Amino acid sequence: MFSRQSGLDLTVDPLKSRASARENLFWPVPGRGRGLAASSRRSTVRGDARQLAQVRPFIAPMRLKESHENGVVIFALSGAIDLHYAPTLRALFQSKLNKRCPALVVDLTAVDFIDSTGLATLIEYHRDAAAHGGVFSLAGVNPNLKAIFDVVQFEKVLAIFPTVAEAKSAITGGQVPPYMADEPADG
C-alpha cells in the first residue's frame, strides 16, 4: 500500500486575503492614512488570529491537510466552512478539477460549522468532477453537521461515510458513482 502525505497545510484568513483597495478602505494599514477615522482604528480588525477570534469567537478558521492514498486524494478539513472560507475551498476544488482528480474524499470530522455557501461548494465540486468521471465523497460527519445534512438531505446527493477508510474502500471498490444529473430523486 502506497501512502503519501503532501506538504499542504493551509490556514485561511479571509481578512488578509481581501483586495488591497478594499483592505485599505475598510481595514487600515498602519502608516497609510486611508481607511477609517483615526479614533476608530484602535478597534479595527486587521486580520491576525487573535483579533479574528475576538470578532468570531465561536468559529475557528478553516484548516486543510491534503494527503494522497492509493490514488484517492483526501482533504482533512477543520474549523468552519462558511461565507468567509468557502471561496478558498472552491479555489482548492477548482485546482483538483483542473488536474482531473479521479477521486476525492473530504474528511469533515473536525469541521465545527458549515453554512449554505459551504454546502453549495461541496455540491458544485461533486457536479463538476463528474464531467471527467471523478468521484467525490464525504467522511466523518460529526453530529453538528449531521443535523444540517439531514435537513438538506445531503445523503440523497452525496456518498457519505462514517470514516475516511470506509470512503476510500468504497471508492476503490467502485461503489461510489459519479454525479448523475438525470437520476430521479427518491421520495
Would you write up a description of this structure?
This protein is of the alpha/beta class. 34% of the residues lie in helices and 25% in strands. It has a six-stranded mixed β-sheet with strand order 1-2-3-4-5-6, sandwiched between helices. The N terminus is likely disordered.
Share of residues in helices: 25-40%
> Which class of secondary structure composition applies to the elements?
alpha/beta
- What is the radius of gyration computed over CA atoms, rounded to a whole number of angstroms? 19 Å
Query: Roughly what fraction of the amino acids lie in strands?
Result: 15-25%
What count of helical segments does DSSP give? Answer: 7
Identify the strand order in the major beta sheet: 1-2-3-4-5-6
Topology order in helix (H) and strand (E) letters: EHHHEEHEHEHEH
| Low confidence ranges | 1-5, 14-47
Count of individual beta strands = 6
Report the sheet with the most strands, covering strand number, pairing sense and barrel closure.
Answer: 6 strands, mixed
Distance between the termini: 40 Å
Question: What integer is the average pLDDT?
Answer: 76
Anisotropy-based shape: globular
Protein topology:
Elements (H helix, E strand, L loop, with lengths): L2 E9 L8 H7 L11 H4 L7 H7 L7 E7 L2 E10 L4 H13 L4 E12 L1 H14 L5 E5 L3 H10 L6 E3 L2 H9 L15
Parallel strand pairs: 3-4, 4-5, 5-6
Antiparallel strand pairs: 1-2, 2-3
Helix pairs in contact: 4-5
Which features would summarize this protein structure in a list?
single chain; 187 residues; alpha/beta; 6-stranded mixed β-sheet; 6 strands; disordered N terminus
